[in-house]
Specification:
By secondary structure, the chain is of the alpha/beta class. The protein has helices spanning about 20-25, 30-35, 50-65, 90-100, 115-125, 150-155, 205-210, 220-240, 260-265, 280, 290-300; strands spanning about 1-10, 15-20, 40-45, 75-80, 105-110, 135-140, 160-170, 175-185, 190, 215, 250-255, 310-315, 320-325. It folds into two domains: about 1-170, Thiolase/Chalcone synthase (Peroxisomal Thiolase, Chain A, domain 1, 3-Layer(aba) Sandwich), CATH 3.40.47; about 175-325, Thiolase/Chalcone synthase (Peroxisomal Thiolase, Chain A, domain 1). The structure holds oxa(dethia)-CoA.
């Protein structure tokens, strides 16, 4: 039994926030942002657009490519750190929007690695025979939890969603060869949202007064762990499939920082033509970044038959992981 990626889709807000726009808002410069991060612009949700909005559109695009009707879905897994509500799950809202009445739906929280975690869970549902058709979505509206007064973080993030349809298949094309996930909870407090959970509830005045509702990050520390974690996860994927870096036709890493991406690719000996990046246009969209990039690479015809596509992510938790696809 193979696990086939039969469709990919993505959805991005129309509103573009450029580095020049940010220069008007905080003490920063286009030059600093580009050289330190590689980001030129990012997409920002308009009023009335939510995580479910982008998730549903990305899902519809993936379902259309797969030729799968929403009623055929057995499962919807939605990865996000910015759900529409603390509960119910945004996956249930997306189930309702799509009319996927036969699907079980739940959210998954693994920060920027969430899409890889979602693939890993979906793979196991299919290989065990528990599901045949699954939608895995990464969707984020990070602009709603970014502190627009904090130049250390607000220049980094953007909104959007990506999705894939996974199906049980006897064919070997477009198939998921492996997934690997890792966690290191010892560093949970290097990248997190201190407020609006049970420790610092949204109802406490302290949460607002001390600006606890926003993303907090020790950027330098996260940077070092990210390079090491992505390398470890990528090597695990290669080793478990008996492959070498030279066998990889395209590396699609989580899009957080161009310097992290380049350092990871260098350690893996993947040259720039085999590296996909769209960070300059979208910034860091957390769990949406890999499925958006996968969909763009797919629609641009960059995924060649039998090509080995390596997906690798790192995020808050810490969480990290990899997936290897035979296209
Ligand atoms: O998605 C999950 C994983 N997340 C990541 O992987 C993010 C990992 N971290 C990073 O990408 C980088 O650490 C950052 C881009 C966040 C920061 O880059 P850095 O090279 O580590 O810079 P820094 O934090 O060491 O800051 C250098 C200087 C500081 O000034 P001083 O203290 O040296 O005078 C900052 O205040 O740059 C200053 N700075 C800025 N200057 C202009 C920080 N943000 C800005 C800004 N504009 N937006």
């Amino acid at each position: 039994m193979n696990v086939k990626i039969s469709g990919t889709g993505s959805s991005l807000p129309h509103k573009i926030l450029t580095n020049a726009d940010l220069e008007q808002m905080i003490d920063t410069s286009d030059e600093w942002i580009r050289t330190r991060t590689g980001i030129t612009e990012r997409r920002i949700a308009a009023p009335g657009e939510y995580t479910s909005t982008f998730a549903a559109e990305a899902a519809r695009n993936a379902l259309a490519m797969a030729g799968v009707h929403p009623e055929e879905l057995d499962l919807i897994i939605l990865s996000t750190v910015t759900p529409d509500f603390p509960f119910p799950s945004t996956a249930c809202i997306v189930q309702d929007i799509l009319g996927a009445v036969n699907a079980t739906a739940f959210d998954l929280s693994a920060a920027c690695s969430g899409f890889i975690y979602g693939l890993s869970v979906a793979e196991k549902y299919i290989r065990s025979g528990a599901a045949k058709k699954i939608l895995v979505i990464g969707s984020e509206t990070l602009s709603r939890i970014v502190d627009w007064q904090d130049r250390n973080t607000c220049v980094l993030f953007g909104d959007g969603a990506g999705a894939v349809v996974l199906e049980a298949s006897s064919e070997s094309d477009h198939s998921l060869l492996s997934t690997h996930t890792f966690s290191n909870g010892a560093h949970w407090n290097l990248l997190y949202q201190p407020g609006s959970g049970s420790r610092n509830p949204a109802s406490a005045s302290r949460t607002i007064d001390e600006r606890l509702i926003y993303i907090t990050m020790e950027g330098n520390e996260v940077f070092k762990h990210a390079v090491r974690g992505m390398e470890e996860a990528a090597i695990k994927a290669l080793d478990s499939n008996g492959l070498a870096p030279a066998d990889i036709s395209l590396l699609i890493p989580h899009q957080a920082n161009q310097r992290i991406i380049s350092a990871t690719a260098k350690r893996l000996e993947i040259d720039p033509p085999r590296l996909f990046t769209n960070l300059h246009r979208y910034g860091n969209t957390s769990s949406a970044s890999i499925p958006i990039a996968l969909d763009e690479a797919n629609r641009q015809g960059l995924l060649k038959p039998d090509g080995k596509i390596l997906l690798v992510a790192f995020g808050g938790g810490f969480t990290y992981g990899s997936a290897l696809v035979n296209w």
